[in-house]
TrEMBL record:
Residues 94-293 form the Peptidase S1 domain. The keyword Cell wall biogenesis/degradation does not apply. Residues 1-25 form the signal peptide. InterPro entries: Peptidase_S1_PA, Peptidase_S1_PA_chymotrypsin, Peptidase_S1A, Ser/Thr_Proteases_Immune/Dev, Trypsin_dom. It holds the Pfam family Trypsin. This is S1 family peptidase. Residues 352-362 have a biased composition (Pro residues).
Length: 467
């Protein structure tokens, strides 16, 4: 395979060629800087719609591209909230690399059938400018066709003038809802950047094409740094490389204390296998933080000055060989259990740092799980939980509370798999901004759908499943 040319350079980019997972979400234009208007979440509690007679809905129309549930429940006794992407034995992959185990390099994401990216903060994904900004869904897991988790960007932006060959191939998405159950590999900053030396080993990760496999499977390859060309870094070659579709994806490096950092943004290269050029995240840090209004460097200031906070703590020592489960939070990556002191004294605040984002205290139900997303207009819809469905192993109450943006009419539907199609078992279609559904159901597979009847914007959705 050869890379596509761009003004004499070769861009690692794959066209949008795969189906979106949720009907009506095929990468429409994105609302920019959408904000959730203030709403009275308590009113969602009072508006309960009972289920009427189930209406059979066309599986093809409402769930196009989503894998059908298995014909019979699994043998174990635990309910599963999300897909766990199956590992595929493809042998050598990327170019000279391998597929990753479940939860391996969990912060590496896929951008709608085109590019790869990196979750660098619970609410921030960094990728390449040449990938563009039209993304309505971002996928986590090991297989784009069966993601473990789907998240919605509030907006995506590219660096003004950013492009391959300039060292500023920068782009960023801010997520509508923080992802707090995926471990983050911090960005290489300050004195840590001295580790970027010719001959040093690094790991490249992405969902792109491979020498013996298709696009959409997360793969990794270990290779070495070649050198620098201005603000770009050259990596790989001799059959170990990234390829089309890996654009925007990360390059990782291991530090002397055993913890890992992410530093590279895959940009362009020659023929797959011959090496490529990468922009470096720390070069764009001031812009990333200015756009997102978030501190995405827990140990440093944007200019690289050592300034550790409570989050400068417990970084992973083995993020690529986790072999954990997504429902378990992908937390088995051998966390260090220590405050970082790579460029100075460790954080002096004492005690373990607080959670990145505490659980919401205004949730309309006790023990419920919060999801979120952004709908672009009438007819747009999101499937939950996170683009998937869940199994209830017993009878009980299914509760859904939708809190929509002011001035919109978003509706809420609960579906159950009847063996051959999805059937509506409960719905709330009032003219209210908020909708509530409570349904007592038997064991089976269920999915929620949030759909815009009119209006656009960012919503919150709370789900409580049977115990």
């Amino acid at each position: 395979m050869t890379h596509q040319s761009l003004q004499g350079k070769i861009v690692l980019f794959t066209p949008l060629s795969l189906l979106a997972l949720v009907a009506g979400a095929c990468d429409p234009d994105i609302e920019t800087d959408a904000e959730l208007d203030a709403v009275d979440v308590a009113s969602a509690k009072a508006d309960i719609t009972d289920a009427g007679q189930p209406t059979i809905i066309s599986h093809e129309d409402l769930f196009a591209g989503v894998a059908d549930p298995p014909p019979a429940p699994p043998r174990d006794d635990e309910a599963s909230d999300e897909f766990t992407a199956a590992e595929e034995d493809e042998g050598d992959a990327i170019y000279g690399g391998t597929t990753v185990p479940a939860c391996g390099w969990a912060s590496t994401v896929e951008l709608g059938g085109a590019c790869s990216g990196t979750l660098v903060h619970p609410q921030v994904v960094i990728y390449a400018a040449h990938c563009g900004a039209s993304y309505s869904k971002i996928y986590l897991g090991e297989n784009y066709a069966a993601p473990a988790k789907t998240v919605t960007p509030q907006w995506c932006k590219v660096y003004p003038g950013g492009q391959p060959g300039s060292g500023n191939d920068f782009a960023v998405c801010k997520l509508s809802t923080p992802v707090n159950d995926v471990p983050i590999v911090p960005i290489l900053m300050g004195c840590e950047t001295s580790n970027l030396q010719p001959g040093k080993q690094v790991t490249l990760v992405g969902f792109g094409n491979a020498d013996n496999g298709p696009y959409g499977i997360k793969r990794q390859v270990t290779t070495t740094i070649n050198g620098f060309d201005g603000d770009e870094i050259s990596i790989g070659g001799n059959g170990k490389d990234t390829c089309q579709g890996d654009s925007g994806g990360p390059a990782f490096i291991k530090l002397a204390d055993g913890t890992w950092r992410v530093f590279g943004i895959t940009s362009y290269g020659g023929a797959c296998g011959t090496g490529g050029m990468y922009s470096m995240m720390h070069k764009g840090m001031a812009w990333f933080e200015q756009q997102t209004a978030l501190d995405i460097t827990p140990c440093h200031n944007a200019d690289g000055t050592w300034n550790p906070g409570a989050g400068c703590y417990n970084f992973q020592t083995n993020p690529g060989s986790v072999n954990d489960t997504w429902t378990g939070g992908c937390n088995a990556g051998a966390p260090s259990g220590a405050y970082s002191q790579t460029c100075g004294a460790p954080y002096q605040g004492g005690g373990n740092p607080p959670p990145t984002d505490p659980p919401p205290n205004n949730a309309p139900c006790t023990g419920c799980t919060e999801y979120g997303g952004t709908l672009s207009g009438a007819g747009d819809a999101d499937q939950h939980p996170n683009g998937s469905y869940y199994q209830s192993v017993g009878s009980g109450a299914h509760e859904g509370y939708l809190v929509g943006p002011a001035g919109t009419d978003f509706d809420l539907y609960l579906y159950k798999w009847n063996g051959s199609a999805w059937a509506t078992v409960a719905k709330a279609e009032t003219a209210s901004t908020n909708e509530t559904v409570k349904y007592n159901g038997t064991a089976g597979y269920y999915a929620w759908l949030v759909q815009s009847y009119s209006g656009s914007g960012t919503y919150k959705f709370y789900v409580k499943k049977p115990n």
